[in-house]
Design a protein that fits this description.
Layout (H helix, E strand, L loop, with lengths): L1 H16 L14 H26 L13
Helix pairs in contact: 1-2
């Protein structure tokens, strides 16, 4: 879960540093495409373990059953 939080916490900072220019204006070794592929692969890899750990550690509200009582 901590890896997933770090990944999603750091990714927006990396995106802010990207000039978002058309590919033809960037140097051939510009890392944006590779970085995006690594981010997506890791996000997919960390998703299920992160969800399991969050469910184990956090209080959750059931999505079925009776609604709130007053």
């Amino acid at each position: 879960m901590s890896r997933q939080l770090l990944l999603h916490g750091e990714w927006p900072e990396a995106i802010r540093r990207d000039p978002r220019l058309p590919a033809e204006l960037l140097p051939p070794d510009w890392p944006a495409i590779d970085a995006d592929q690594v981010f997506r692969r890791l996000a997919t890899q960390y998703r299920q373990p992160g969800l399991r750990e969050a469910a184990r550690r956090l209080d959750t509200v059931p999505t079925t059953g009776a609604g709130p009582t007053t």
